[in-house]
Amino acid sequence: MYFILLLVIITFLLVDFLAKIRRYSLTSNYPGPKIYPIFGTTEIFKRRKAEEYLEVFRGYSVKYGPIYRMWIGHELIIFIEDPAILETLLSSPKYINKHSIYGMVKFWLRDGLLLSTGPKWHSRRKIAAAAFHYKILEGFVDVFDRNSHILAKKFKKHLDGNEFDIYWDVSLAALDIICESAMGTKIDAQTSTDCEYIPAVEELSNILCQRVTNVCYWNEGIFGILAPKIKARQDHLVKILHNFTEDVILKRRDALLTNQIKGDGISPPESKRKRAALLDVLLQSTIDGKPLTNADIQEEVDTFMFGGHDTSASAVSFALYRLSRHPEVQSRAFQEICEVIGTDKNKPVTYKDLQSLKYLECVIKETLRLYPSISLLGRRALEDSKIDEYWIPANSNIIVPCHIVLRNPSSFPDPDKFNPDRFLENSAEINPYSFIPFSAGPRQCVGQRYAMLEMKSLLSTMLRYYELLPMGPDPLPIAYLVLKSTNGVHIGIRERKF
């Protein structure tokens, strides 16, 4: 018995070793940092401040070029920055599976749209696309608008001439918006301190930040061994989140079945009222004639929550920061807002209004170019393939450093300059695979139109209320799962006079 077990283990290790040798041979022409036996690229294990990693990868790009490799233990990681190669990579079904690092959030998101593959991903993607149909998005505009005004009014306490960190308040607004639009549930994150979901989301995000910058924490099992207390806390927090979404789903399903939804502004699709939460779409969707189970729905709702909260908060915060530092851009954006929406702060915005804010959209795009909410995209090769002269072996991990791709001077001249006009003047000439803040290809962000409308609403409301002032320190961006700043995002404000 023990002999057979030992033989199986030896065979497994031998096969794994031979596969590694083969991957090493196929990628021998790749540049990259020095590799050591067993450990691989030990340079990546150096103790660094988390905010230094963006510059580290920028240095690798300068030193090794647009495609290079690393090894972490037996795992091959290929970094690709060339838009021409990215077009093949991101559009091909050979690379549709996600990098193994995404497994770090599986305990939370399970097998939702972000992590699923194969037929399950294809069927869920169709449902998600329907959930973000423009007719449904139109119904969310009043959710965006109402919560934008709550945020703007909260900022009034900062009309004292001092600079302040905007990130936390913007994050709460984004959380209110995604909860109401995804789940049809108001948690009043901006005005209440009673909901345990809010601090649980924030603390869990911080734990994930620790894990993503420590390669020893990437594997769930090893993480539990090396940091058992943090792992136990993580499990407790995710239980809070799962219990919350499960309770919402059960109540929502019961309400739809009895057709007695009332009081929260959400209606079942058979109603003639405009707005249905994304959850309602999932509850009434079928795959092969069968409705989704509560577990199916929960993993998608959790995925919407994960993908639609911190990402929006990051983009809006950095956009407000940049507008405060560029008064000429701020003035031009404000002028457009006055022409489209008017000067009445209390006037509700419409879907058409937000769609018409073309220059503000350029401001958002330029912000995302300089501060992509998701700094790294990851894929896993399903089979051996060759792009140009480079072999990409099966089971190798691929990383796309978005913050490098988006500052490529060949695609964006004077890349470190904040210049929204580049999306007005040359937008037709920009390679879609060089502008990838929402990824690209079949696995691009299904909610990007939703995100753009939300960001336009928040920014246009803030600019109607306040003049943004260049006060406080510049942010120190840090690439966690979502781009943040280690020292916050600071501005000053002055009440807008018409």
TrEMBL record:
Amino acids binding heme: C445
Matching CDD domains: CYP4
GO terms assigned for molecular function: heme binding; iron ion binding; monooxygenase activity; oxidoreductase activity, acting on paired donors, with incorporation or reduction of molecular oxygen
Cofactor names: heme
Keywords tagged on the record: Heme, Iron, Metal-binding, Monooxygenase, Oxidoreductase
Pfam families from the UniProt entry: p450
PANTHER family registered for this protein in UniProt: CYTOCHROME P450 4AE1-RELATED, CYTOCHROME P450 FAMILY 4
Sequence similarity: Belongs to the cytochrome P450 family.
Record-given protein name: Cytochrome P450
Species in which this protein is naturally found: Hermetia illucens (Black soldier fly)
Lineage: Eukaryota, Metazoa, Ecdysozoa, Arthropoda, Hexapoda
